[in-house]
Model the fold of this input.
Amino acid sequence: MAVPSAPVDELRRDAFEAIRSHLMFAALFSALVNLLYLAPTIYMLQVYDRVIPTGGVLTLVFITLAIFLALGTLAYLDNMRSRLLVRAGLALDRRFAAEVLSRQMAARLEGDQSRALQAMRDFDSVRQTISGSAAIALFDAPWMPIYLLFAFLLHPLLGLLIVIGGAVLTGLAILNERATKERLRKSQEVAARGYAVQEAAVNQGEVVRALGMRQALVNRQLIERSQSLNMQAEAQFTGGVYSGSIKFFRLFLQSLALGTGAWLAVEHKISSGAVIAASVLLSRSLQPIEQLVGSWASIVQARVSYGHLKDLFAGRAPDHPRTQLPAPTGPLQLERVAVRAPGTQNAVLKGVSLNVQPGEIVGLMGPSGSGKTTLARVAAGALTAEVGSVRVDGAELKDWDAERLARHVGYLPQDSGLFAGSIRDNISRFEAWRGIPAEEVDEQTVAAAQAAGVHELILRLPQGYDTMLGLGGRGLSAGQTQRIALARALYRQPHILILDEPNSNLDADGETALVRALGAAKEAGAAILLVAHRSGVLAISDRLALLKDGTLELFGPRDEVVARLNELAAPRRPRVVQTPAKEGEGA
Done:
């Protein structure tokens, strides 16, 4: 399924389009709800001004029936408004979740860890705020003037009291936002880093235990967690002061409205029913402000999260529809590729150019740190070159639909890169989750395992192909994990193979199976780029490339490169200088 994209300046518009109908109906229901909130006030006026003075029991029955219907309708509409906002959150999720996840993965590949770690948390923060009590308070706030107008109709002094109270509470709300915004933002960032450290420590639990790092990592996690919680607590303490102040002023103003109404009634300027109505009106008119202050932490967090999402969308150019190119069958070409180490100006690759033809194996060798793995990642499309280009069938990688091209590329990274899931899912690249028929997936999975020489090994596992693995292939040995990853690379007989140290964890049988699999892929016409140290695997290469300090030192037919390497490695003999013999001495 294609993932839609939206440029940064259209993010807000697209989000509004996704939930516009929900918000319009929520606004309509909010209008009706807030009008119906006047019903208790009107009921009190009728009871105190008409029923009690006249003893009109029949009037009381009718207005009680009316208030029953009004409040029942209010409850129904309020429930419908809440459901609409929840559905708005679900609509946002349907529209943006796939894109956020896609951009999150892209940010991780580009080395932007801060955006990658918390993208979905930021999205969920915005979504939950839209569908929660904060959104209801925002919908109610614009209807404060209705209550204010009704209060002025009772008496201008009561309306003025509500205006003053609203101004005081709004000022406190603004001060609350200014006092807590920065603390909440920093708390969120520290918490995101802490979660990342915790996740990494759990995933590398065996290494942590073997190297005695548990206590150190626990201490580090506690310190970072303490920093986050302290900043969050400071923001909550500050917000609590403002929330308490707002509650005090609202209750005091409500009592003051009651007292003011009583004074006006004594002066015969309003009726006795208006005394109670004034207190109710003030309480209702100021309630949205109190709700906003109570939800202010989530609103501020949602604003911060929305800013992060804007940065995430700015971090990668939006995808655009591409012309569908035919399935690749031809050469893989790297042209003057250059890559810098993340966060530095140090070049890992310096203008490297090489090509791999169909039905050919190019062996890539060089000392540690020479850039071999980086070159393999660039060739596979896992890393974008800063300078230069990578071409498949003559077309640059950016001209291909990445997902479509990747189905014709087999890539085996240095760390295998298996995911939590069954062996079947890992070999088949989780194709069943894209809706591919199970029979087809099973057939291709078994064929790939057989090509990698790992079919019999899988059948000996307790649940065969349905054996569940942990992250990174946890549950298998390093050699078994690497052979499963090789089967994944061979899935559906890709036309391009990039293998990074595919034999680093293999025994003799595993290496024999690897050589056999590479030979079969070569016979099928695959272009194979092979990164390796062991000469046993490199011996099957047609051409060899030597990387040194990010530069391509040698590249040519295997025998010529080997001869040149032997020549360079051979010790130089000291030159013997012949001097003429002196007279009388033997020759």
Notes: The chain has two domains: 8-314, 332-569. The mean pLDDT is 83. The chain has 20 helices and twelve strands. Residues 36 and 81 are 14 Å apart (CA to CA).
